[in-house]
Write a structure and sequence with these properties.
InterPro entries: Cyt_P450_sf
Radius of gyration: 19 Å
Number of strands: 0
CATH architecture: Orthogonal Bundle
Largest sheet: none
Shape: globular
Strand content: under 5%
Number of helices: 11
Mean pLDDT: 90
CATH topology: Cytochrome p450
Order of helices and strands: HHHHHHHHHHH
Keywords: Membrane, Transmembrane, Transmembrane helix
Helix content: 55-70%
Distance between the termini: 48 Å
Bound molecules: protoporphyrin IX containing FE
């Protein structure tokens, strides 16, 4: 069945259930409802200053490359900015890409392989679980899914220890977990954190990449 494909969204393995990986429509809606408070606009806006700071760093890099008359890989820099912005919204911290101006620990390249891999692997879920997405293999953290998960869990861990964290997405989810432990497990929160980093970063970096590509091809479409 094609809908089985969605089970690939249990990252890094089948124990980490997310709304996207839940096949039963009623159960999926219930799960989504528990996580929905994290996406409230008024709370997301609390990270606006940090998003502005990341965009300022992006503009600084653009200035540096322009002054040096060197070509800049805009797509990569947009991705660094969006990974960091997603991190700020989810767990009050940037992952450090745009400040460093490069792919720290190869995480972005890793995410690209993860996308390719997920596109295909979902059609062979039984094989995926047998060979890759099982606790034995993922605990080694060698595969793309394990890497994304490990990076997200490190950030989640730091966030929990930091009293200066904002009331971010994770704060909402931890509150639901504390109030309704029977409905949401801590592992569910970990799973949602990892998939939301993936869901938020790639989608958001596609937007400026596409907009820039369109404007470069037909400058008349640029906003006034
Ligand atoms: C241009 C930007 C975006 C596009 C086009 C987009 C697209 C989508 C689509 C089509 C779905 C539904 C998938 C399905 O059920 O088959 C979805 C779900 C989701 N997206 Fe996005 N998305 C974007 C940005 C984001 C961002 C910024 C985040 C988080 C920071 C995010 C997190 C999620 C999550 C958590 C779900 C699952 C929600 C649930 O089922 O309860 N997305 N997105």
């Amino acid at each position: 069945m094609h809908e089985d494909w969605y089970q690939v969204f249990a990252i890094p393995d089948y124990r980490y259930v997310t709304p996207q990986s839940t096949l039963d429509p009623k159960e999926k809606t219930e799960r989504s409802r528990l996580f929905a408070p994290g996406f409230t606009l008024s709370y997301l806006l609390r990270s606006e200053l940090q998003h502005d700071a990341n965009i300022a760093l992006l503009l600084d890099w653009m200035d540096k490359y322009a002054e040096a008359h060197e070509p800049m890989h805009l797509g990569k820099f947009f991705t660094y900015t969006e990974f960091d912005n997603a991190g700020e919204a989810i767990f009050s911290r940037s992952l450090g890409f745009i400040k460093a101006g490069h792919d720290v620990s190869g995480s972005v390249a890793n995410s690209r392989s993860l996308n390719r891999y997920m596109g295909i692997a979902g059609y062979y879920v039984w094989l995926l679980r047998l060979v890759v997405a099982n606790p034995l293999i993922t605990s080694l953290g060698l595969l793309p899914m394990g890497h994304l998960f490990r990076t997200s869990m490190e950030a989640l861990h730091q966030r929990k220890a930091d009293p200066d964290s904002r009331f971010d997405m994770v704060a909402h989810w931890l509150r639901v977990y504390q109030e309704y432990p029977g409905l949401l497990s801590y592992r569910d929160v970990e799973a949602m954190t990892a998939t939301t980093i993936a869901a938020g970063s790639d989608t958001l970096s596609c937007t400026p990449v596409s907009a820039t590509a369109i404007v470069l091809r037909s400058p008349s479409r640029a906003p006034p």
